Amino acid sequence: MKILNLYCGIGGNRKRWGDEHEITAVEIDKDIAAIYQEIFPNDKVIITDAHDYLLEHYKEFDFIWSSPPCPSHSRLRCCNPKQNKPIFPDMKLYEEIIFLQKWFKGKFIVENVNSYYKPLIEPFLIERHYFWSNIILKDIYFKGIIDVRRGIIPDMEKALNYNLSKYKGIDKRAILRNCVNPKVGLHIFKEMLK
């Protein structure tokens, strides 16, 4: 199967998928893409804008996972108005959902955080994430998973099974907070394979 992993970060969602499939990962940040490539050496990593890549290449894949940036949708944006200046929500999230629903013939997942507003398109909810998909997703609870929003870096690394200690010049906390729990990624991957 050919899989497209958009806005891949360091691959939290992909961590437990194995190497049986042809995976193309897209990340705009070259430093984060380099970490992903080191963790998943068999994947093809492309450093570019994932939104544009989706439009140009969606027909080449059987399964697409997209995790567009979440800061403009996050409930954290409203928690501290002095620290977080109001901004418009980035509507590329909904552009991708609608685009995939209409044009993509394979299976897809679009992932984002629980938003501070009522979602414009009804999502599935698993842990602290919304998921839009053309497959039915069942909620699942993973015992012992820490709330990475409040965790310190060593706790988050342990919970997500990552060790970023050798990497310098990156915001480890932000990178780990943006990871989809690998157990959730595997759960969804298995649902997609059915």
Strand percent estimate = 15-25%
* Number of helical stretches of at least 4 residues: 7
Q: How helical, in percent, are the residues?
A: 25-40%
Strand tally, please?
Answer: 7
**Which structural class matches the secondary elements?**
alpha/beta
* End-to-end separation: 13 Å
CATH topology: Rossmann fold
Overall pLDDT score: 90
What general form does the structure show? globular
Output the strand order for the largest sheet: 3-2-1-4-5-7-6
Q: Under the CATH scheme, which architecture would be assigned?
A: 3-Layer(aba) Sandwich
> CATH superfamily membership, which one?
Vaccinia Virus protein VP39
What composes the largest sheet? 7 strands, mixed
Helix and strand sequence: EEHEHEHHEEEHHH
For the record, the count of structural domains works out to 1
Q: Compute the gyration radius: what is it?
A: 16 Å
CATH class: Alpha Beta
Structure description:
The protein has 194 residues and is of the alpha/beta class. It has one domain (2-142, 182-193): Rossmann fold. Helices cover 31% and strands 18% of the residues. It is built from 7 helices and 7 strands. It has a 7-stranded mixed β-sheet, sandwiched between helices. Strand 6 and strand 7 (129-133) form a beta hairpin. The two termini are 13 Å apart.
Q: Strands, helices and their partners?
A:
Layout: E1 2-6, E2 22-27, H1 30-39, E3 44-47, H2 50-57, E4 63-66, H3 76-79, H4 92-103, E5 107-113, E6 124-126, E7 129-133, H5 153-160, H6 172-177, H7 182-193
Parallel strand pairs: 1-2, 1-4, 2-3, 4-5
Antiparallel strand pairs: 5-7, 6-7
